[in-house]
């Protein structure tokens, strides 16, 4: 059976981006890691940006799958939102590529990385918005600006999980859930 060259290229690029970052990754490196000629990469991807987009798209799908895995239909929306967001951000904090991209954005401000991280955030917000819209349509929660609420939820979770830990002991999942219920989710019925 012939190797799936496209898959090998994506895996090699993911490894290279994870190790060296976006800016330092070259198509030559990807070709060497994938054990293919550089021209083979261009039969599947126009350029490094398109290859990067493919990888990030897959990463977003993995994040959403992580969230879906912990959501339970019988639980209150507040609990499911907490479970899903916490899992997404936990995935993000442990995924080598995400770690490297966040580091590269902070240290170098690489535009392509900033745009892709923004895309990831937008996808998470859209996912949350969809969950809240569904809950509203079922009458589970009152009508609200679901996009703004989703944005605030994501930003608060990021602050509580990543920013707080810079100068304090990390908060547990239960502590974060309690804080979120007090500050934002208390408006939503359990």
From TrEMBL:
Keyword Nuclease: no
DNA-binding residues: 26-45
Alphabetized UniProt keyword annotations: DNA-binding, Repressor
Domain annotation HTH tetR-type: ranges: 3-63
Pfam families found in the cross-reference section: TetR_N
Domain of life: Bacteria
Name of protein: TetR/AcrR family transcriptional regulator
């Amino acid at each position: 059976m012939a190797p799936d060259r496209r898959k090998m290229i994506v895996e090699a690029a993911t490894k290279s981006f994870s190790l060296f970052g976006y800016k330092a990754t070259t198509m030559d490196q990807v070709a060497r890691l994938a054990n293919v000629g550089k021209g083979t990469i261009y039969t599947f991807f126009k350029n490094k940006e398109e290859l990067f987009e493919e990888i990030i798209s897959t990463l977003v799908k993995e994040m959403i799958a992580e969230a879906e895995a912990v959501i339970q239909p019988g639980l209150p929306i507040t609990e499911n939102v907490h479970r899903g967001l916490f899992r997404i951000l936990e995935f993000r904090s442990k995924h080598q590529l995400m770690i490297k991209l966040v580091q590269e954005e902070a240290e170098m401000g690489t535009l392509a990385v900033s745009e892709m991280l923004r895309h990831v955030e937008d996808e998470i917000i859209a996912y949350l918005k969809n969950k809240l819209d569904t809950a509203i349509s079922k009458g589970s929660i009152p009508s609200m600006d679901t996009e703004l609420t989703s944005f605030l939820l994501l930003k608060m979770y990021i602050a509580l999980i990543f920013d707080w830990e810079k100068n304090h002991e990390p908060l547990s999942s239960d502590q974060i859930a309690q804080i979120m219920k007090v500050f934002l989710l208390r408006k939503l019925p359990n």
